[in-house]
Specification:
The structure is a single chain. The protein has 2 domains: 50 residues, Wheat Germ Agglutinin (Isolectin 2), domain 1 (2-Layer Sandwich); 43 residues, no CATH class. It contains 3 helices and 4 strands, in the order ββαββαα. A two-stranded antiparallel ribbon has the order 1-2. A hairpin with a 5-residue loop joins strand 3 and strand 4.
């Protein structure tokens, strides 16, 4: 006996027949949505300015922009870089911040 299974996608917005499944991410979460061609085009159009200005993240690695200071509060990479520059320390605009520099920042901001 032969069996045939058919999968039919339903548009998650309007309940009609969907043409594709789209995966996207926001705030560290990944989402999928089934959409028809018109709704898929509208989603891509809405995201277009953000995609054009953003950077593509490496797959499998969540973005981390905050480090814990000695007191437990979060310090952004931007805070550490601005502090370093105010101290006359040269630091790149992007990339990993050396641990010794983070330690100096934490020491300077310990309560």
């Amino acid at each position: 006996m032969a069996r045939k299974t058919t999968i039919e996608l339903t548009d998650d917005l309007d309940g009609g027949k969907a043409a594709e499944t789209i995966t996207f991410g926001l705030d560290g979460q990944t989402y999928t949505i089934d959409l028809n061609a018109r709704n898929a085009k509208a989603l891509r159009k809405a995201f277009a300015p953000y995609v054009a200005s953003g950077r593509q993240a490496k797959a499998g690695k969540p973005a981390r922009s905050r480090r814990r200071t000695a007191g437990g509060s979060a310090a952004s990479s931007r805070d550490v870089r601005e502090w370093a520059r105010s101290q006359g320390i040269q630091i790149a605009d992007r990339g990993r911040i050396p641990n010794d520099l983070v330690a100096k920042f934490q020491a300077a901001h310990a309560a």
